[in-house]
Amino acid sequence: MNKKLLTLLLVDDEEQFLNMLANRLEQRGYVILTAHSGDEALFQIEKEDINLIILDISMPGRDGMETLKAIKQKRPDIQIIMLTGHGSIQKGIESMKLGASDFLEKPVDFNVLLESISNTLQ
Amino acid sequence: MNIFSFIKNKFFPTKKELSNEELDNLFKQKYNKFKILINANNNTLKTMAEMEQAFYGDKSYGMVFIRTHTTSIIVNIFKMVKNLIELSDGRYSRLDEKLEEMKDKIIAIYEKKIPIPSGNWCVSIDKAGTEPISLLGEKMTNLGKIKHELNLCVSPAFVITSAAYYYFILSNDLQNEINRMLNNLDPENLEELYKTSDDIKKIIITAPLPNDLESVIYKNYQNLEKITLNDVLVSLRSSATSEDSKDASFAGQYLTKLHVRKDDIISAYKEVIASKYTPRALIYRLKKGFRDEDIAMSVGCMVMVDASVSGVMYTIDPLDPKSDFLVINAAKGLADSIVDGTARPFVIKVSRDNPGNIIKEEYERFGDFEICNEIIKKIFDAGMALEDYFKKPQDIEWSLDKDNNITILQSRTVQEKTCDNSLNTSLLPENTIPLISGGATINSGISFGNVFVILEKRLPDFFPEGSVMVLKNPLPEFASLLSRASAVISETGGMAGHLATISREFGIPAIFGMENATDILKDAGEVTVDANGCRVYQGKIEALLAQDVRKKIIPMQGSPVQDIMREILILTVPLSLLDPLSPYFRPSACKTLHDITRFCHEKAVEEISFFGKDNKFNDREAKRLVVNGNTLSDWWVINLSDGFKNMYDQVFRFINISDIVSAPMLSLWEGINAEPWAGPPPIDARGFGSILFGSTMNPGFQPELASSMTAKNYFMVSKDYCNLSMRLGYHFAVVESQISDVIHDNYVSFSFRGGAADERRREMRVELISDILKKYDFRVELKGDSLFARFERESGDAILLRLKMLGYLVIHTRQIDMVMYNGAMVKEYEDKLLAGIERLLVKGGG
Lengths: 122, 846
Prior knowledge:
Strand content of chain A: 15-25%
Oligomer: heterodimer
Number of helices of chain B: 26
Largest sheet of chain A: 5 strands, parallel
CATH architecture of chain A: 3-Layer(aba) Sandwich
CATH class of chain A: Alpha Beta
Number of helices of chain A: 5
Distance between the termini of chain B: 61 Å
Order of helices and strands of chain A: EHEHEHEHEH
């Protein structure tokens, strides 16, 4: 699989963080799509071919856990990494049980995130 | 079907017969799971090492650190368990329950709540000695006891208890708001710290006190009026509770309001409560390991003493605890100028064995100030009575009224931490003249940094880490910056000030009473502070710094946060699954998260290496490596896809090195096989001692297990890829590498952990390996005795060269942790290893 063709969807309601992350990941050769809410993310997976989603937990409206559930129901094949500033041991385990591939807490070391992405996509 | 195969199929059903292609696909899936598991294994061990390092280190950590690390460990073990269960077709599904059980235990530790005390909102000091300390706080409980059981005067007073505190906070629903603000706080950002502090204080001060609580407070005040006089002035003093504060003084952390009039009692009460959130108190709790909920603010409301002289007395000398002297600090009026450091108190020392032996400090400012020996004896007697009563050296605040009657305002145990046990002297470097000298040692030690002068009372907006803080007055407020300072110098103040106490508690060299310091040092730039000799020198003077013999201080010792960390680590780190061949090596025997990790790792390697044999699939069977006609018992190779020559007959149980086409493996092997291992290094007596008694961090390594642990090492290879899992002696190592046409995707990674020697020696070994790897441009992370290194995005040749050197390293660093007892030895081995690698690379044309 050629890395350059991999498409990542970033879902976070914090615009600034989303842009920063999108920039840095684009530089690493990924195709980046963004969504500001869970609903937007669900819409995106219908029309785009997405390999991996990086999903924030605390978002207004449909939160990350709900979104994770909904995406896994529709597209169990898409890998999802949860990335959150409001984590807890319970949420970590719950996410994994719902099918997340990893659970990382903000602020995340960019190298750790990259490693998680490449491990998840191997 | 003949009868035998019928019976066999009926009673021992085999899996559906799969074609070779199906088996190969199945293997690929399993190998993917294996890789995820190995990655998760590395993450887990790395995170565990970070937690251990934090626990044993001298830096503070908070609940957020514990939560994020614990979550990461549990999430990664979840990945391991899930993938192992899938790898093994459900064989180890009991691990699921085991992990669930441990997760619940850890969450229970993390979330353990302190019960909210129940009791009266106000308690008279006359009854204070009999109420629980969780209701009144230590300060007021002790005063209650003193009043009740000793023939010493204590001001009329009552306590507004912690029950009242919770009633006030909870009835206004303030705690959730406070928690939210604290959760978002980055304490390293001073501006944010001050703002959050102001915000929290504001919501407390503007919140209304419930009417019923207010009337109880006034009723108690009226009782004070009855036994003294109408409209009597009072002081409001914090008497904060904390579960266990034997290693934390909390000196000057909270507000004391003096001369409070009747009408101002309620607002003063709220101000004292709000002082739980001053920057210094927030930082102090964080650095010392107390959570917000560990502290409840009880407040003492005491009738003011009309004091002519006041002071602070220590029944042992905090600067020289082994000496025979009780130390009295005295000043005119109230003691607040002593504790906030604005005055330089008059110091009197009295011999405990021979109270007639009195040493009064000669100090010209005190010309008209005289305390006669008779009164000194009175103060001394009170101090000794308090020490006898509490059975520990005391730190006592006292006042004398016009008739020289002594009143006790506070008595608490002198914290061991706030004593300087190393009254050191330092030799003056030759030909060096100090910029300034004078004042008194408040905490000994020698350090250096850039001068940062603070002239105002206000906290500065920034304070560079490692600066020398130079103050006009050592106000307690500055404690919020103390843990960032390398030394503190002040023009006023003495050893009894709050900032003095805190500087001893954090082990920061301090000189107080150094006149004109702010002026003389303001442009000095980098200075060396010799707090032993009370001198400051220009620049960094190594000869002096070398004489600094301060002991490492663990600020969080004995704190609630440290307790939580310890409890979690006990369920996380110790390894009891030692021997994979033992019948107890099974899920039900896992006692810690490390056990689960270890079990998953071992069984995953087993699953992958037995896949070929179990499925009668020769292509993916582990083959013994044959080199120069010798069959090696400890080196095995599994072909992941195209790692062997096409003509190799997969039926064989052996593979000759010449039949392997995996470039990464061949390079790695070249390094492994280059020179025979010199054997275990000669171990000195100390080496043995450290093996026998050390290894608390690594209890899993016991010499008698050496044989089973030297067992099998597996290469898993394809043409462009190699993974080597090794267990050599007592350490684990994993090398993984991939090379391809896309330079971007090339990498070699190396992780290394363990050893049999004590922690320090194992660390020295990984430091040595790290040094060597860095010389070859690896990015290296060291966590305790674990090393993680990576070299990537380089040409295939560059990767192969590094594989050779790694092969050499893993063989020749075996057991050398045993002899890593000093820098010279490390250097000797490092030189030897580097020379060997050079030989290898030159020979190989690298």
